[in-house]
From TrEMBL:
<protein>
    <submittedName>
        <fullName>2OG-Fe(II) oxygenase</fullName>
    </submittedName>
</protein>
<keyword id="KW-0479">Metal-binding</keyword>
<keyword id="KW-0256">Endoplasmic reticulum</keyword>
<keyword id="KW-0847">Vitamin C</keyword>
<dbReference type="Pfam" id="PF13640">
    <property type="entry name" value="2OG-FeII_Oxy_3"/>
</dbReference>
<keyword id="KW-0408">Iron</keyword>
<feature type="domain" description="Fe2OG dioxygenase">
    <location>
        <begin position="216"/>
        <end position="315"/>
    </location>
</feature>
<dbReference type="InterPro" id="IPR011990">
    <property type="entry name" value="TPR-like_helical_dom_sf"/>
</dbReference>
<dbReference type="InterPro" id="IPR006620">
    <property type="entry name" value="Pro_4_hyd_alph"/>
</dbReference>
<dbReference type="InterPro" id="IPR044862">
    <property type="entry name" value="Pro_4_hyd_alph_FE2OG_OXY"/>
</dbReference>
<keyword id="KW-0560">Oxidoreductase</keyword>
<keyword id="KW-0325">Glycoprotein</keyword>
<keyword id="KW-0223">Dioxygenase</keyword>
<dbReference type="InterPro" id="IPR045054">
    <property type="entry name" value="P4HA-like"/>
</dbReference>
<dbReference type="InterPro" id="IPR005123">
    <property type="entry name" value="Oxoglu/Fe-dep_dioxygenase_dom"/>
</dbReference>
């Protein structure tokens, strides 16, 4: 109770504009071994507010928190160890940490079982990739049937479920979030701190089928569409981007809905979602210019809820912690 009160008092101080007092309160409690204060300080160091971002320090704080027995800190430590945030990516070390966490945490045990069922090597890389089915040359588009198992699809949707928010963009005048003019779904991004070990392995798989490095991918985005919601015709390439989105991977996560097909506007090619299927298409031409034939839409869902995972892949490595707007 005292630990929770300390963090609550710090948050109240922050809300009142007393930033330094809040930081001092959490720093002092963390130094005294207050597990919730340690966790909050680690989180602050990850997000970069109200203290400067320091990923190595965040990982050190998480290690202290885990040693005291904080379950959420253990899963976050595993994620950062696997993807290399604040250090070097180390799959074997992350797997060893997951095995330790799984002894006392049912959620970690589920993650370990899911990883154990995957056909991956000692670095979490897929050993085998199914043959693609070519659907189009313009745009360059292929499909991989049943790339993800039902359990893997459920895992991705489950991580995102509690983070879903209405799609929005920033008002260029006020800077406040406003309704997205093109996408009417709910969405969430599985960032580096939430990238479970199964998710990391799946991101390796998506990199493999797209012929890219995992570092080129943006964090996995998960979208949920309910009746009437859609993604109107659009290009995934970004006008004027310094580090362009060269490819898109879409993974359909569920069944039990009607509508929600993916349609490519130039050809009329319409893809009916099947759970576990993935499509990969290029967003740019050989000269690096946007490919207009890659314009596509997510048609309205008419019944049920459609879940979809999207990984946008850049031309060069993408730093999710210090991502530019373009």
């Amino acid at each position: 109770m005292a630990a929770d009160n300390t963090v609550a008092r710090a948050e109240a101080l922050l809300a009142a504009g007393a930033r330094q007092e809040a930081i001092a309160l959490v720093d002092g409690a963390a130094a005294a071994g207050n597990v919730d204060a340690l966790m909050r300080l680690a989180t602050w160091r990850l997000i970069g507010a109200p203290v400067p971002r320091d990923l190595p320090l965040a990982r050190a704080l998480l290690a202290r928190t885990v040693a005291i027995g904080h379950v959420d800190a253990a899963l976050m430590q595993i994620a950062l160890t696997a993807n290399g945030s604040g250090g070097v990516a180390n799959w074997p070390a992350a797997l060893a940490l997951l095995r330790i966490a799984a002894r006392n945490d049912p959620l970690a045990a589920e993650h370990l079982a899911l990883v154990g069922a995957m056909d991956i090597d000692t670095d979490g890389m897929p050993r085998n990739i199914p043959e693609p089915e070519r659907l189009s040359d313009a745009p360059d588009l292929v499909r991989y049937r049943a790339l993800l198992t039902p359990q893997e699809c459920a895992h991705i949707a489950g991580i995102a479920a509690d983070m879903l928010e209405p799609a929005s963009v920033l008002d260029p005048t006020t800077g406040a979030p406003i309704a997205h003019p093109v996408r009417t779904s709910y969405g969430a991004v599985i960032g580096p701190a939430k990238e479970s070990l199964p998710t990391r392995a799946l991101n390796h798989r998506l990199a493999a089928i797209s012929g890219t490095m995992i570092a080129q991918g943006e964090p996995l985005a998960v979208l949920r569409y309910t009746p009437g919601q859609q993604y109107r015709p659009h290009l995934d390439s970004i006008a004027g981007a310094i580090n362009q989105r060269i490819k898109t991977v879409l993974v359909y996560l569920n069944h039990g809905f009607v509508g929600g097909e993916t349609r490519f506007m130039a050809t009329g090619l319409t893809i009916a979602p099947q759970p576990g299927d993935a499509i990969v298409f290029s967003n740019v031409l050989e000269n690096g210019q946007p490919d207009r034939s890659a314009e596509h839409a997510g048609l309205p869902v008419t019944r049920g809820a459609k879940w979809l995972a999207t990984r946008w892949i850049r031309a060069t490595p993408y730093d999710a912690w210090n991502a530019p707007r373009l």
